[in-house]
Amino acid sequence: MKAIHIPTYTPDPSTLQPSNIPTPTPQADEFLIRITHCSPQHADILHAQGKHQNNNAKKGWCFPPFTLGYDFAGVVHSLPTSGAEGVAGGLRKGDRVLGAAIGAFAEYICVKRSAIRKVPAGLSNETACAMVGQAVSYASVVRIAKVQPGETVMVSGASGGLGGVCCMVAKACRARVVALVGDEGKAAQMRGSLGVDAVVVMRGGGGGEWMGEVMEFTGGKGVDVVLDNTGMVDDALRCLAYFGRIVILGFAARKGVMEEVKMNKLLLKSATVVGYRFGESGRRFPHELEEIWEGYLGMMQEGRLKPLLYGRYDGLEDVGRALGDLAARKVYGKIVVRVADEEETAKL
Ligand SMILES: NC(=O)c1ccc[n+]([C@@H]2O[C@H](COP(=O)([O-])OP(=O)(O)OC[C@H]3O[C@@H](n4cnc5c(N)ncnc54)[C@H](OP(=O)(O)O)[C@@H]3O)[C@@H](O)[C@H]2O)c1
């Protein structure tokens, strides 16, 4: 099969091209999935470069040679051969699935049941692939921040995968949404396509004039909720209303250097600051994870969440270009690479 194979780490993932490697053989408890779409993200760049925490020589598990990629959608090509209860988990050959597992930039992938979910009727594999990585955004808005109708929600990194869906879910919860973006070009694109109430360009970076725009938007009161994808708690506190809530989701803008925040700022505004680690929460509380996926996929099926797709990428040959565009911060929304048609034309 064709795959983006990493025999050694590479400093510039935009040069990556597919090569031919053996199609993986599933274990008794694994499905073989024929991949139809994959969605490159920043973590893939880090994995290719060997800079992700998963590549850490002592604590990591992802070392060359490996196949790159994480988020995918596809079709069940073969079922697990183990007859043990729950191994196939109600899935059948030919079912369309969305999933996340290392090795997604390939024509086929072997996965356990826990890595995949059935794509609900009415959703395309392209949509499922674009949205598979952002259940965290849904959960952060609905379950962690518990956003209420009429509240004002500010989202940092709103042009990113998580940020865009945070905005959409907050709108679906009937909040007023302020999207923060890095430059005017992206802002112009997003004003038309994201459906938010205000798009604010973070001119001057941290502590910049843009905060005045946010405060003006809220009539001087400040925002009720901040969903922070970039690492800007100090700025978030300055824009926050009394008794406001900040959810820390990521540190995309911190370049590995964490900020230090004076605790009196929390007290002065009676602020709540909470972190949310989606993967670990799901492992510890699997029942809640199921509820989250049900709610998230339900919103998608009802048409209340629609993926914001960036550009056109066709075939594994386009994965390198996609990673280059991500690294250059050109992208708003999600890239989806079409790998194959949903109809079976398998070579196996
Ligand atoms: N909490 C969790 O469980 C969880 C789960 C998954 C991911 N995450 C983390 O959440 C964060 C967002 O993930 P994502 O997938 O949405 O990332 P993404 O698609 O790369 O988006 C991040 C956004 O941050 C903005 N940004 C500002 N400064 C940046 C910089 N120096 N480099 C890159 N981007 C910068 C960019 O928008 P502008 O260019 O418009 O500023 C970009 O669109 C990441 O830190 C990720 O590791 C957390």
UniProtKB/TrEMBL annotation:
Residues 11-337 form the Enoyl reductase (ER) domain. GO terms for molecular function: oxidoreductase activity. It comes from the Eukaryota. Coiled coil: none annotated. SMART domains: PKS_ER. Residues 1-20 are annotated as: Disordered. GO terms for cellular component: mitochondrion. It holds the Pfam family ADH_zinc_N. Residues 11-20 have a biased composition (Polar residues). This is Enoyl reductase (ER) domain-containing protein.
